[in-house]
Design goal:
single chain, globular, 5 helices, mainly alpha, 169 residues
Length: 169
């Protein structure tokens, strides 16, 4: 089997696998999801914000609530950043040009994000959120942009090496 075909199959498996991972996380009940993010929040607090332990109770709770909110939204963004990069990479592996692959990857990523939010409507203790959908869409867009930036840098470096031009110029 050609190397390109193996690469395409690997990207398909990774993309579908990542979508399944997102589905499994969204399928967790509200208390289970909250427990996971609370654990991450406490770990981040103990690692980076140890001084919060000496704050008065209400101030500590306010700081932790803000950190918890940030971590939950960062998780949404990150999940869909990876998905956007995977979908765009998959489309590019089929020799689709940049702009059409970016548009299709963005549309597919946002559609999946919408279905993910809809799915949460049917999970106990969870609910869909338009704000989360916007965060997911931003993650998809950023993932596509990061992938394209990395590919641009790789292509530029290869051209310079081929032309025997120093990389620092």
């Amino acid at each position: 089997m050609k190397r390109q075909r193996v690469f395409q199959i690997a990207l398909i498996v990774l993309t579908v696998g990542w979508m399944a991972f997102i589905f499994v996380l969204s399928n967790e009940g509200g208390s289970q999801s909250s427990s996971l993010s609370n654990g991450v929040t406490k770990t981040v607090q103990k690692t980076f914000f140890k001084e919060w332990d000496s704050l008065p109770g209400s101030e500590y709770r306010d700081h932790m609530a803000g950190l918890h909110f940030f971590i939950r939204k960062a998780a949404h963004f990150s999940e869909f950043l990876v998905l956007g990069a995977l979908i765009a990479g998959l489309l590019l592996s089929f020799r689709m040009s940049l702009l059409p692959s970016a548009v299709i990857a963005f549309a597919a990523g946002v559609l999946y994000a919408g279905s993910d939010e809809l799915h949460q409507h049917f999970v106990s203790g969870r609910s869909p959120s338009a704000f989360d959908l916007l965060i997911d869409a931003a993650g998809v867009l950023f993932g596509i942009a990061v992938l394209y930036a990395v590919l641009y840098l790789i292509r530029t470096a290869k051209k310079r090496i081929k032309a025997d031009v120093p990389l620092e110029s």
